[in-house]
Amino acid sequence: MSRINTNVTSLIAQRVLGQNSGDLTTSLERLSTGLRINRGKDDPAGLIASQNLRAEIRGTNQAISNAERADQVASIAEGGLQEVSGLLTELQGLVTNTANTAGLSDAEKRANQLQVDSILQTIDRVSSATSFQGTKLLNGNFDYSVNSVAATVSSYSVNGAKLNFNGTQAVNVLVTQSAQVGQLLLSLGNANIQLGGSNGTFVFQIAGNKGSRELSFSSGTSVANIISTINTFKDVTGVSATASGTTGIRASSVDFGKSGFVSVKVVNASSVSGSGIYTYGTTNANSATAAGSSNTAFTAATNGVRDVGQDLGATINGITATTQGKVARINTDFLDVQIELTTGASQTLAAPISAFTINGGGADFQLAGNVDISGKVAIGISNVAVRELGKQTIGTALESLASLGAGRNLNVVDGNISGAQKVVTSAISQVSQLRGRIGAFQKNTVGATIRSLGVSAENSTAAESAVRDADFATETAGLTRSQILVQSATQVLSLANQRPQNVLSLLRG
Fold first, then answer.
1. CATH no. of 35-142+364-469
2. N or C: which end of the chain has fewer CB within 10 A?
3. Per-residue DSSP letters for 404-434?
């Protein structure tokens, strides 16, 4: 057939040439950009996956930067605390030195007090000067704010808390096992010791978790005098004594829990009257167990009778707490608190306690790409000013490190040196625990997060590359193919355009 109005062959060649030219353009674009997907039409599903992966990679990389910044903040805080720790150690030495009263002159004591005052001022200065980009780190700026503290809570500390959307967190305690001290009842039968012989003595050794003492009493010694003698050595033995009626002595460990115990070993019973030594019930610290089952006669107590305390059992916000004495603590990703209950509350079972409410504060760091509560970590950094460190009840007053200042109750010139050492020891423990928490936060939380996020960023980047990046080997082969096909289609189109001219040979005939 010889038609010239419609050159079908040329149209076919044009269509094929257009397709080959498009393929060539696509190959050139991919090779020049290095991307297999440059626009949505290249691979709609691949583009969606690629964009999602890019968002995840960006968030992950920023989380790594956040973690590195958190590590820097923690390092600065640790540096300040290290200096405070060194000053407290120096303060401990000054207190111990000043306690050597017979070997020091008044001038030396006053000189030591000058050093103490200088140390206290320096601690306050470090507390207020340690900062990161103008944000104070050790002045309580990152401590937690707490209100509605129950009267049944003796003390508490909030080390970390992820607060909900309205910035609060209620803390509730449920006692499941009572806290007890180690206790023994010495039943003497009379208000005064009655011995078999006028020259006899009643000798027994009393011991606790701090040490032991052997005490000796003659016939006629009153129960009140024995109690007073036992209490004289309370700081040495860790055992105190109170009256039980008019003829009994209750010997109790000073400390609650398994770390506290009381032991009585009779060295010489000397025919003392009385029924012997009783233990107390584990659930009722005010009631001695029935006679016969747990009673040990004085003459049979030569190897000692011992009773150990019992730690509190409790849950905090539904989490089983780690306990010691009257103190309960939980340490979870969402809440890290420590609570000490009063004696009455620690011995009242199944009575829910609304301990307190956390209503703000703490240092929050975003260590995950997704901005939600699970990707946030929180740590509390308490105030290390001298007025907040080492708080202890000395006598009837609550004293702090500030009480070691000149003219205060615990000054080293004429103050309570023993109380001063207790406060300094408590302050050293407080700062050491804070340093330990910050160190654990850096090593186990921040360090592990950086390593984990680094692996996640690598894998996400590899996945995104597999979806979006061009394979140069494949694209180069496609480019060569497209170039050949374009050239071939161009040649065919030229031939197709020449074909209608063959009709002229018919006209010449």
1. 1.20.1330.10
2. N
3. GSTTSTT-TTTS-HHHHHHHHHHHHHHHHHH
Counting Cα atoms < 13 Å in the Cβ hemisphere of 406 gives: 12
Measured in whole angstroms, the distance separating CA 189 from the mean position of its chain's CA atoms is 52
Report the C-alpha gap between 187 and 51 in whole angstroms. Answer: 82
- The answer to whether the beta carbons of residues 374 and 204 sit under 8 Å apart is no
pLDDT tens, residue by residue, 242-256:
998 888 999 999 999
Could you tell me the two tokens for 186? 């010495």
Tens of pLDDT along 347-370? Answer: 888 778 999 999 988 888 988 888
Q: What is the DSSP letter of 249?
A: E
Instruction: Check if the beta carbon of residue 341 is closer than 8 Å to that of residue 152.
Output: yes
Among residues 246, 265, 268, 242, the alpha carbon closest in space to that of 254 is found at 242
Phi, psi of 422 (to 5 degrees): -60, -40
Run of H or E residues at 154 = strand 153-161
Helices (H), 187-232: 223-232
Largest CA distance in the chain: 166
Could you list the mean pLDDT of each consecutive 10-residue stretch along the chain, which spans 509 residues? Answer: 71 81 78 80 84 89 92 94 94 91 86 94 94 91 92 92 83 93 90 76 92 91 93 93 91 92 90 83 53 72 91 93 94 91 89 90 87 85 92 87 91 90 93 93 91 91 85 81 82 78 70
